[in-house]
Specification:
The protein is an alpha+beta fold. The chain has helices at 9-35, 41-49, 68-79, 83-103, 106-117, 238-274, 286-315, 320-344, 355-363, 373-383; strands at residues 122-126, 142-146, 151-162, 169-180, 186-194, 200-202, 216-227, 231-232, 276-277, 280-281. The strands form three sheets. A four-stranded mixed beta sheet has the order 1-4-5-8, covered by helices on one side. It has a four-stranded antiparallel beta sheet with strand order 2-3-7-6, with helices on one face. The chain binds flavin-adenine dinucleotide (FAD). Residues 236-384 form the Acyl-CoA dehydrogenase/oxidase C-terminal domain.
Protein backbone atom coordinates (compact mmCIF):
# COMPACT_ATOMS: atom_id res chain seq x y z
CA UNK A 1 0.00 0.00 0.00
CA UNK A 2 1.29 3.40 -0.92
CA UNK A 3 0.48 6.48 1.13
CA UNK A 4 2.47 8.79 -1.11
CA UNK A 5 0.24 11.68 -2.16
CA UNK A 6 2.97 13.56 -4.03
CA UNK A 7 2.34 14.30 -7.68
CA UNK A 8 4.48 12.66 -10.37
CA UNK A 9 6.86 14.91 -12.31
CA UNK A 10 4.39 14.99 -15.25
CA UNK A 11 1.42 15.87 -13.05
CA UNK A 12 3.39 18.60 -11.26
CA UNK A 13 4.49 20.03 -14.62
CA UNK A 14 0.86 20.09 -15.77
CA UNK A 15 -0.20 21.77 -12.52
CA UNK A 16 2.41 24.53 -12.95
CA UNK A 17 1.50 25.09 -16.60
CA UNK A 18 -2.22 25.45 -15.85
CA UNK A 19 -1.48 27.59 -12.78
CA UNK A 20 0.57 30.01 -14.91
CA UNK A 21 -2.07 30.04 -17.67
CA UNK A 22 -4.86 30.75 -15.16
CA UNK A 23 -2.98 33.68 -13.60
CA UNK A 24 -1.51 35.17 -16.76
CA UNK A 25 -4.30 34.63 -19.30
CA UNK A 26 -7.59 34.02 -17.47
CA UNK A 27 -7.32 36.27 -14.41
CA UNK A 28 -6.90 39.59 -16.28
CA UNK A 29 -9.76 38.91 -18.73
CA UNK A 30 -12.44 36.79 -17.11
CA UNK A 31 -14.11 39.42 -14.89
CA UNK A 32 -15.33 41.34 -17.95
CA UNK A 33 -16.77 38.20 -19.59
CA UNK A 34 -18.48 37.35 -16.30
CA UNK A 35 -20.04 40.79 -15.99
CA UNK A 36 -21.29 40.62 -19.60
CA UNK A 37 -22.53 37.02 -19.11
CA UNK A 38 -20.46 36.16 -22.16
CA UNK A 39 -18.86 32.85 -23.09
CA UNK A 40 -15.06 33.34 -23.35
CA UNK A 41 -14.40 31.71 -26.73
CA UNK A 42 -10.76 32.85 -27.02
CA UNK A 43 -9.82 31.51 -23.59
CA UNK A 44 -11.55 28.20 -24.32
CA UNK A 45 -9.68 27.99 -27.65
CA UNK A 46 -6.36 28.49 -25.83
CA UNK A 47 -7.31 25.80 -23.31
CA UNK A 48 -7.99 23.59 -26.32
CA UNK A 49 -4.57 24.29 -27.83
CA UNK A 50 -2.99 23.37 -24.47
CA UNK A 51 -4.66 19.97 -24.74
CA UNK A 52 -6.82 20.38 -21.62
CA UNK A 53 -9.97 19.02 -23.29
CA UNK A 54 -8.14 15.83 -24.24
CA UNK A 55 -6.37 15.24 -20.93
CA UNK A 56 -7.82 11.85 -19.87
CA UNK A 57 -8.26 10.39 -23.37
CA UNK A 58 -5.86 8.21 -25.37
CA UNK A 59 -3.74 9.75 -28.11
CA UNK A 60 -5.38 7.61 -30.80
CA UNK A 61 -8.56 9.71 -30.35
CA UNK A 62 -6.68 13.01 -30.20
CA UNK A 63 -6.27 13.01 -26.42
CA UNK A 64 -3.21 13.64 -24.26
CA UNK A 65 -2.99 10.10 -22.89
CA UNK A 66 -3.37 11.31 -19.29
CA UNK A 67 -5.78 10.19 -16.60
CA UNK A 68 -8.49 11.48 -14.28
CA UNK A 69 -5.90 12.79 -11.84
CA UNK A 70 -4.54 15.00 -14.61
CA UNK A 71 -8.03 16.32 -15.32
CA UNK A 72 -8.59 17.05 -11.61
CA UNK A 73 -5.26 18.87 -11.33
CA UNK A 74 -6.14 21.10 -14.28
CA UNK A 75 -9.64 21.79 -12.94
CA UNK A 76 -8.33 22.69 -9.51
CA UNK A 77 -5.81 25.18 -10.89
CA UNK A 78 -8.39 26.78 -13.21
CA UNK A 79 -10.98 27.11 -10.43
CA UNK A 80 -8.42 28.76 -8.13
CA UNK A 81 -8.84 31.68 -10.51
CA UNK A 82 -12.22 31.18 -12.18
CA UNK A 83 -15.00 28.60 -12.04
CA UNK A 84 -16.80 29.42 -15.31
CA UNK A 85 -13.92 28.19 -17.45
CA UNK A 86 -13.36 25.28 -15.08
CA UNK A 87 -16.97 24.07 -15.36
CA UNK A 88 -16.83 24.50 -19.13
CA UNK A 89 -13.87 22.09 -19.18
CA UNK A 90 -15.39 19.75 -16.58
CA UNK A 91 -18.70 19.41 -18.40
CA UNK A 92 -17.04 19.10 -21.83
CA UNK A 93 -14.75 16.29 -20.68
CA UNK A 94 -16.65 14.38 -17.96
CA UNK A 95 -20.14 14.81 -19.36
CA UNK A 96 -19.66 15.61 -23.06
CA UNK A 97 -16.85 13.38 -24.29
CA UNK A 98 -16.61 10.72 -21.56
CA UNK A 99 -19.91 8.87 -22.30
CA UNK A 100 -18.81 8.47 -25.92
CA UNK A 101 -15.35 7.31 -24.87
CA UNK A 102 -16.61 4.88 -22.22
CA UNK A 103 -19.65 3.45 -23.97
CA UNK A 104 -19.60 4.56 -27.62
CA UNK A 105 -18.88 2.46 -30.71
CA UNK A 106 -15.50 2.70 -32.41
CA UNK A 107 -17.15 4.70 -35.18
CA UNK A 108 -18.70 7.18 -32.72
CA UNK A 109 -15.32 7.63 -31.01
CA UNK A 110 -13.51 8.25 -34.30
CA UNK A 111 -16.18 10.65 -35.50
CA UNK A 112 -16.61 12.79 -32.38
CA UNK A 113 -13.64 12.51 -30.01
CA UNK A 114 -10.77 14.18 -31.97
CA UNK A 115 -12.53 17.55 -32.21
CA UNK A 116 -13.91 17.28 -28.66
CA UNK A 117 -10.38 16.53 -27.40
CA UNK A 118 -8.90 19.52 -29.24
CA UNK A 119 -11.54 21.86 -27.78
CA UNK A 120 -12.62 22.91 -31.30
CA UNK A 121 -16.04 21.58 -30.37
CA UNK A 122 -17.83 21.00 -27.06
CA UNK A 123 -20.10 18.17 -26.00
CA UNK A 124 -22.96 18.27 -23.48
CA UNK A 125 -24.85 15.69 -21.46
CA UNK A 126 -28.60 16.06 -21.02
CA UNK A 127 -29.96 14.18 -18.06
CA UNK A 128 -31.88 16.69 -15.94
CA UNK A 129 -35.45 17.58 -16.92
CA UNK A 130 -37.94 20.12 -15.61
CA UNK A 131 -39.56 17.37 -13.50
CA UNK A 132 -36.55 15.11 -12.78
CA UNK A 133 -33.19 16.11 -11.30
CA UNK A 134 -32.05 14.14 -8.25
CA UNK A 135 -34.59 11.50 -9.27
CA UNK A 136 -33.03 11.17 -12.72
CA UNK A 137 -34.69 7.79 -13.28
CA UNK A 138 -37.99 9.71 -13.47
CA UNK A 139 -37.27 11.35 -16.82
CA UNK A 140 -40.08 11.74 -19.36
CA UNK A 141 -38.16 12.35 -22.59
CA UNK A 142 -38.76 9.49 -25.00
CA UNK A 143 -36.85 8.08 -27.95
CA UNK A 144 -38.96 5.81 -30.15
CA UNK A 145 -37.55 3.60 -32.90
CA UNK A 146 -38.74 4.24 -36.44
CA UNK A 147 -37.39 1.01 -37.95
CA UNK A 148 -38.49 1.88 -41.49
CA UNK A 149 -36.53 5.14 -41.44
CA UNK A 150 -33.67 3.71 -39.37
CA UNK A 151 -34.06 6.54 -36.87
CA UNK A 152 -34.87 7.45 -33.27
CA UNK A 153 -37.65 9.98 -32.83
CA UNK A 154 -37.06 12.03 -29.70
CA UNK A 155 -39.61 14.13 -27.79
CA UNK A 156 -39.22 15.92 -24.47
CA UNK A 157 -37.09 18.53 -22.77
CA UNK A 158 -33.94 18.93 -20.69
CA UNK A 159 -33.09 21.61 -18.13
CA UNK A 160 -29.86 23.29 -17.03
CA UNK A 161 -27.61 21.69 -19.66
CA UNK A 162 -24.01 22.98 -19.56
CA UNK A 163 -22.27 23.76 -22.89
CA UNK A 164 -25.50 23.02 -24.78
CA UNK A 165 -25.80 26.28 -26.71
CA UNK A 166 -22.37 27.66 -27.59
CA UNK A 167 -21.32 28.37 -31.18
CA UNK A 168 -18.95 25.41 -30.93
CA UNK A 169 -21.34 22.89 -29.34
CA UNK A 170 -21.26 19.77 -31.52
CA UNK A 171 -23.64 17.45 -29.70
CA UNK A 172 -25.67 16.65 -26.66
CA UNK A 173 -25.98 13.09 -25.45
CA UNK A 174 -29.47 12.77 -23.98
CA UNK A 175 -31.01 10.15 -21.77
CA UNK A 176 -34.45 9.05 -22.93
CA UNK A 177 -36.99 6.35 -22.17
CA UNK A 178 -36.77 3.84 -25.03
CA UNK A 179 -39.10 1.16 -23.67
CA UNK A 180 -40.51 -0.53 -20.56
CA UNK A 181 -39.62 -3.68 -18.65
CA UNK A 182 -42.37 -6.33 -18.37
CA UNK A 183 -43.26 -4.85 -14.95
CA UNK A 184 -43.58 -1.35 -16.43
CA UNK A 185 -40.26 0.19 -15.31
CA UNK A 186 -38.72 2.64 -17.82
CA UNK A 187 -35.78 1.46 -19.89
CA UNK A 188 -33.44 4.41 -20.28
CA UNK A 189 -30.94 4.74 -23.11
CA UNK A 190 -28.46 7.43 -24.20
CA UNK A 191 -28.62 8.90 -27.69
CA UNK A 192 -26.33 11.43 -29.41
CA UNK A 193 -28.15 14.44 -30.86
CA UNK A 194 -25.88 16.57 -33.09
CA UNK A 195 -26.32 20.37 -32.85
CA UNK A 196 -28.61 21.80 -35.47
CA UNK A 197 -30.77 18.68 -35.83
CA UNK A 198 -34.27 19.83 -36.91
CA UNK A 199 -36.73 19.84 -34.00
CA UNK A 200 -34.03 20.57 -31.40
CA UNK A 201 -34.63 23.99 -29.86
CA UNK A 202 -31.95 25.62 -27.73
CA UNK A 203 -33.42 28.22 -25.36
CA UNK A 204 -31.65 31.51 -24.60
CA UNK A 205 -29.03 31.23 -21.84
CA UNK A 206 -30.44 31.23 -18.28
CA UNK A 207 -29.81 34.21 -16.04
CA UNK A 208 -27.75 32.58 -13.25
CA UNK A 209 -26.46 33.57 -9.80
CA UNK A 210 -22.96 32.43 -10.74
CA UNK A 211 -20.89 30.63 -13.40
CA UNK A 212 -21.84 33.59 -15.55
CA UNK A 213 -19.19 33.07 -18.22
CA UNK A 214 -20.36 29.49 -18.77
CA UNK A 215 -23.19 28.29 -21.01
CA UNK A 216 -26.34 26.70 -19.51
CA UNK A 217 -29.49 26.07 -21.56
CA UNK A 218 -32.85 24.45 -21.66
CA UNK A 219 -33.33 22.14 -24.63
CA UNK A 220 -36.56 20.93 -26.18
CA UNK A 221 -36.98 18.04 -28.57
CA UNK A 222 -39.95 18.04 -30.89
CA UNK A 223 -39.91 15.00 -33.17
CA UNK A 224 -36.10 15.13 -33.37
CA UNK A 225 -34.81 12.40 -35.70
CA UNK A 226 -31.32 10.92 -35.44
CA UNK A 227 -29.92 7.65 -36.88
CA UNK A 228 -30.39 4.47 -34.84
CA UNK A 229 -26.57 4.28 -34.87
CA UNK A 230 -26.50 7.29 -32.50
CA UNK A 231 -27.43 5.03 -29.56
CA UNK A 232 -24.55 5.14 -27.03
CA UNK A 233 -23.88 1.69 -25.59
CA UNK A 234 -26.55 -0.96 -25.26
CA UNK A 235 -30.23 -0.09 -25.34
CA UNK A 236 -31.70 0.12 -21.83
CA UNK A 237 -28.25 0.64 -20.23
CA UNK A 238 -28.55 4.43 -20.06
CA UNK A 239 -29.31 4.49 -16.33
CA UNK A 240 -26.27 2.39 -15.39
CA UNK A 241 -24.13 4.48 -17.75
CA UNK A 242 -25.08 7.80 -16.28
CA UNK A 243 -24.55 6.52 -12.74
CA UNK A 244 -20.97 5.68 -13.75
CA UNK A 245 -20.53 9.02 -15.54
CA UNK A 246 -21.82 10.91 -12.50
CA UNK A 247 -19.58 8.94 -10.10
CA UNK A 248 -16.55 10.04 -12.10
CA UNK A 249 -17.90 13.53 -12.62
CA UNK A 250 -18.13 14.01 -8.86
CA UNK A 251 -14.38 13.64 -8.58
CA UNK A 252 -13.94 16.35 -11.20
CA UNK A 253 -16.44 18.66 -9.48
CA UNK A 254 -14.67 18.00 -6.19
CA UNK A 255 -11.34 19.07 -7.71
CA UNK A 256 -13.04 22.19 -9.03
CA UNK A 257 -14.55 22.94 -5.58
CA UNK A 258 -11.11 22.45 -4.00
CA UNK A 259 -9.70 24.99 -6.44
CA UNK A 260 -12.35 27.53 -5.47
CA UNK A 261 -11.66 26.89 -1.77
CA UNK A 262 -7.91 27.39 -2.37
CA UNK A 263 -8.52 30.49 -4.49
CA UNK A 264 -10.33 31.99 -1.49
CA UNK A 265 -7.21 31.37 0.62
CA UNK A 266 -4.96 32.94 -2.06
CA UNK A 267 -7.10 36.08 -2.32
CA UNK A 268 -7.57 36.39 1.46
CA UNK A 269 -3.85 36.06 2.16
CA UNK A 270 -3.09 38.82 -0.32
CA UNK A 271 -5.79 41.11 1.05
CA UNK A 272 -4.95 40.47 4.71
CA UNK A 273 -1.40 41.73 4.03
CA UNK A 274 -2.44 44.84 2.07
CA UNK A 275 -5.51 46.09 3.90
CA UNK A 276 -4.85 48.33 6.87
CA UNK A 277 -7.27 48.94 9.72
CA UNK A 278 -6.42 50.48 13.09
CA UNK A 279 -2.93 51.28 11.78
CA UNK A 280 -1.81 47.78 10.82
CA UNK A 281 -2.55 45.09 8.23
CA UNK A 282 -5.75 43.23 9.12
CA UNK A 283 -3.74 39.98 8.80
CA UNK A 284 -1.97 40.85 12.06
CA UNK A 285 -5.21 40.18 13.95
CA UNK A 286 -5.45 36.64 15.23
CA UNK A 287 -9.15 36.52 14.34
CA UNK A 288 -8.23 36.98 10.65
CA UNK A 289 -5.23 34.62 10.90
CA UNK A 290 -7.43 31.88 12.36
CA UNK A 291 -10.04 32.32 9.64
CA UNK A 292 -7.33 31.89 6.98
CA UNK A 293 -5.77 28.94 8.84
CA UNK A 294 -9.17 27.21 8.93
CA UNK A 295 -9.72 27.95 5.23
CA UNK A 296 -6.32 26.48 4.34
CA UNK A 297 -7.08 23.37 6.43
CA UNK A 298 -10.39 22.84 4.66
CA UNK A 299 -8.86 23.32 1.18
CA UNK A 300 -6.06 20.90 2.02
CA UNK A 301 -8.42 18.18 3.27
CA UNK A 302 -10.68 18.67 0.23
CA UNK A 303 -7.62 18.08 -1.98
CA UNK A 304 -6.72 14.88 -0.11
CA UNK A 305 -10.33 13.72 -0.65
CA UNK A 306 -10.58 14.21 -4.41
CA UNK A 307 -7.06 12.92 -5.07
CA UNK A 308 -7.81 9.77 -3.07
CA UNK A 309 -11.01 9.14 -5.08
CA UNK A 310 -9.20 9.87 -8.37
CA UNK A 311 -6.32 7.54 -7.46
CA UNK A 312 -8.80 4.74 -6.79
CA UNK A 313 -10.48 5.35 -10.14
CA UNK A 314 -7.13 5.37 -11.96
CA UNK A 315 -6.08 2.12 -10.23
CA UNK A 316 -9.37 0.48 -11.24
CA UNK A 317 -10.61 0.14 -7.65
CA UNK A 318 -14.12 0.91 -6.34
CA UNK A 319 -14.43 4.67 -5.79
CA UNK A 320 -18.17 5.41 -5.50
CA UNK A 321 -18.20 6.20 -1.77
CA UNK A 322 -14.92 8.14 -1.87
CA UNK A 323 -16.17 10.23 -4.81
CA UNK A 324 -19.38 11.09 -2.93
CA UNK A 325 -17.41 11.91 0.25
CA UNK A 326 -15.03 14.13 -1.73
CA UNK A 327 -17.86 15.92 -3.53
CA UNK A 328 -19.89 16.46 -0.35
CA UNK A 329 -16.91 17.74 1.64
CA UNK A 330 -15.27 19.91 -1.00
CA UNK A 331 -18.49 21.64 -2.02
CA UNK A 332 -19.32 22.39 1.63
CA UNK A 333 -15.86 23.88 2.24
CA UNK A 334 -15.98 25.85 -1.01
CA UNK A 335 -19.10 27.62 0.30
CA UNK A 336 -17.53 28.06 3.76
CA UNK A 337 -14.30 29.47 2.34
CA UNK A 338 -16.14 31.79 -0.05
CA UNK A 339 -18.20 33.18 2.85
CA UNK A 340 -15.10 33.77 5.00
CA UNK A 341 -13.07 35.23 2.14
CA UNK A 342 -15.85 37.73 1.45
CA UNK A 343 -15.93 38.61 5.15
CA UNK A 344 -12.17 39.22 5.19
CA UNK A 345 -12.56 41.58 2.22
CA UNK A 346 -15.22 43.64 4.05
CA UNK A 347 -17.28 45.87 1.75
CA UNK A 348 -14.87 45.25 -1.12
CA UNK A 349 -15.80 41.58 -0.96
CA UNK A 350 -19.31 42.56 -2.01
CA UNK A 351 -18.02 44.34 -5.13
CA UNK A 352 -18.01 42.26 -8.29
CA UNK A 353 -14.61 43.57 -9.37
CA UNK A 354 -13.00 41.49 -6.59
CA UNK A 355 -12.43 37.81 -7.45
CA UNK A 356 -13.84 36.71 -4.07
CA UNK A 357 -17.23 38.15 -5.01
CA UNK A 358 -17.19 35.89 -8.07
CA UNK A 359 -16.10 32.97 -5.91
CA UNK A 360 -18.95 33.57 -3.51
CA UNK A 361 -21.48 33.59 -6.32
CA UNK A 362 -19.89 30.53 -7.94
CA UNK A 363 -19.67 28.44 -4.76
CA UNK A 364 -23.34 27.63 -4.05
CA UNK A 365 -23.97 25.61 -7.21
CA UNK A 366 -21.25 23.18 -6.11
CA UNK A 367 -23.63 21.90 -3.41
CA UNK A 368 -26.30 21.32 -6.09
CA UNK A 369 -24.86 20.27 -9.48
CA UNK A 370 -23.92 16.66 -10.36
CA UNK A 371 -25.83 15.44 -7.31
CA UNK A 372 -26.92 17.65 -4.40
CA UNK A 373 -25.33 17.32 -0.95
CA UNK A 374 -28.42 15.36 0.13
CA UNK A 375 -27.90 12.94 -2.76
CA UNK A 376 -24.22 12.52 -1.76
CA UNK A 377 -25.33 11.67 1.80
CA UNK A 378 -27.83 9.15 0.40
CA UNK A 379 -25.05 7.52 -1.65
CA UNK A 380 -22.62 7.41 1.29
CA UNK A 381 -25.28 5.94 3.61
CA UNK A 382 -26.13 3.32 0.98
CA UNK A 383 -22.46 2.40 0.59
CA UNK A 384 -22.36 1.95 4.38
CA UNK A 385 -25.18 -0.57 4.06
CA UNK A 386 -28.00 1.67 5.31
CA UNK A 387 -31.18 1.19 3.28
CA UNK A 388 -34.89 1.98 3.51
C1 LIG B 1 -25.67 25.77 -13.55
C2 LIG B 1 -26.15 24.35 -13.64
C3 LIG B 1 -25.57 23.48 -14.55
C4 LIG B 1 -26.05 22.16 -14.69
N1 LIG B 1 -25.53 21.35 -15.68
C5 LIG B 1 -26.16 20.16 -15.94
C6 LIG B 1 -25.77 19.37 -17.08
O1 LIG B 1 -24.83 19.71 -17.82
N2 LIG B 1 -26.46 18.22 -17.34
C7 LIG B 1 -27.50 17.81 -16.56
O2 LIG B 1 -28.08 16.77 -16.85
N3 LIG B 1 -27.87 18.53 -15.44
C8 LIG B 1 -27.24 19.69 -15.14
N4 LIG B 1 -27.63 20.44 -14.04
C9 LIG B 1 -28.73 19.96 -13.20
C10 LIG B 1 -28.31 19.55 -11.80
O3 LIG B 1 -27.55 18.38 -11.84
C11 LIG B 1 -29.59 19.42 -10.96
O4 LIG B 1 -30.08 20.74 -10.75
C12 LIG B 1 -29.37 18.72 -9.65
O5 LIG B 1 -29.06 17.36 -9.84
C13 LIG B 1 -30.59 18.81 -8.71
O6 LIG B 1 -31.77 18.49 -9.37
P1 LIG B 1 -33.05 19.47 -9.25
O7 LIG B 1 -32.56 20.83 -9.59
O8 LIG B 1 -34.13 18.90 -10.08
O9 LIG B 1 -33.44 19.44 -7.73
P2 LIG B 1 -34.44 18.37 -7.03
O10 LIG B 1 -34.04 16.99 -7.38
O11 LIG B 1 -35.84 18.78 -7.31
O12 LIG B 1 -34.12 18.63 -5.50
C14 LIG B 1 -34.68 19.72 -4.75
C15 LIG B 1 -34.17 19.57 -3.31
O13 LIG B 1 -34.71 18.36 -2.74
C16 LIG B 1 -33.66 17.55 -2.26
N5 LIG B 1 -34.02 16.15 -2.41
C17 LIG B 1 -34.48 15.51 -3.51
N6 LIG B 1 -34.72 14.22 -3.26
C18 LIG B 1 -34.38 14.01 -1.95
C19 LIG B 1 -34.38 12.89 -1.10
N7 LIG B 1 -34.76 11.67 -1.52
N8 LIG B 1 -33.98 13.04 0.19
C20 LIG B 1 -33.58 14.26 0.64
N9 LIG B 1 -33.55 15.37 -0.14
C21 LIG B 1 -33.94 15.24 -1.42
C22 LIG B 1 -32.45 17.93 -3.10
O14 LIG B 1 -31.23 17.59 -2.47
C23 LIG B 1 -32.65 19.45 -3.23
O15 LIG B 1 -32.19 20.07 -2.06
C24 LIG B 1 -27.10 21.73 -13.87
C25 LIG B 1 -27.67 22.60 -12.91
C26 LIG B 1 -27.23 23.90 -12.82
C27 LIG B 1 -27.91 24.82 -11.83
Amino acid sequence: MSLDHRLTVEHEELRRTVEAFAHEVIAPKIGAFYERHEFPYEIVAEMGRMGLFGLPFPEEYGGMGGDYLALGIALEELARVDSSVAITLEAAVSLGAMPIFRFGTEEQKRRWLPRLCSGETLGAFGLTEPGAGSDAGGIRTTAVRDEAAGEWVINGSKSFITNAGTDITALVTVTAVTGRTPDGKPLISSVIVPSGTPGLTVAPAYSKVGWNASDTRELSFDGVRVPLANLVGAEGRGYAQFLRILDEGRIAISALATGLAQGCVDESLKYARERYAFGRPIGQNQAIQFKIADMETRAHMARVGWRDAASRLVRGEPFKKEAAVAKLYSSTVAVDNAREATQIHGGYGFMNEYPVARMWRDSKILEIGEGTSEVQRMLIARELGLTG
